[in-house]
Structures are given as structure tokens and as C-alpha cells.
Amino acid sequence: MTDSRPDIQTEADVQRLVDAFYLKVNQDDLLSPVFNGFAHVDWARHLPIMYDFWSSLLLGTSRYSGRPFPKHMPLPVNATHFSRWLQLFEATVDELFAGPVADTAKVRALNIATMFEYRLRKRDPLSLL
Q1: How far, in Å, are 27, 35, 102, 124 from residue 73 at the CA level?
Q2: What's the pTM value of the predicted model, to 2 decimals?
Q3: What angle is formed at CA 86 by the lines to CA 63 and CA 18, rounded to 5 degrees?
Q4: Which of 18, 21, 76, 88 has a C-alpha 20 to 30 A away from that of 47?
């Protein structure tokens, strides 16, 4: 049987992934309070940044420039939050896409969650990672 899900190939695909993922985040009992209660994310501003971030990682567009980790340092999160974030991200990818870039998206998300969780646990602002 052939998988009918497309791979992530275009900017529209990246936007679809990001929008669907953050819709899940906003409905999640664990993550929504962090994003909306503690961080008061301005979604109209944040989502285009996430489009650029994931487009850079998955399509090689190099549109994102910045350091995402420092913005996460004040957040009241732990391994449970990162595990849930990753679970939602992987589920979103799997619902919408299949293929090498979709697999790369899940690996990149795992690497990001692992690195951020480790660095937040250490709270080491001088690290170069």
C-alpha cells in the first residue's frame, strides 16, 4: 500500500506543519499555560518566526537568524514539558507528512528538545550551544 501523505517540500508545507502543531500546543493542558499564561506568546508575531525557523532547518532557506535558546530560559518547564512538546510535534508530522524531510523534521525536533531540556536543567547561560 502506498502512503498518500506527501513529504515536506514547500513553504506551504512548513506553514501547515507549524500551524497544525501550535494548534495542538494551544489546546494542550500542559503546554498551553506555558505559552499563553506564562509567556503570553503573541501568535501573530511568533508563527512567522517559526515558519522561518523550520523553513531554514527543513528547506535550507536560511531565513531564520537568531538564538532561540535564550528566550526559553525564563520558562517554567522541565523534561515533562519537552517530552509533551516532542510528542505533539511528532504526531503532527506523522498526521500530515511522510518521507525523508518529514523524518528529518522529527529528528531535528528531538535534537532541539533534548538540547533545550539539558541546557535548562543546567541553566548555563555561558554555554555556546
Answers
A1: 23, 13, 28, 9
A2: 0.89
A3: 40
A4: 76
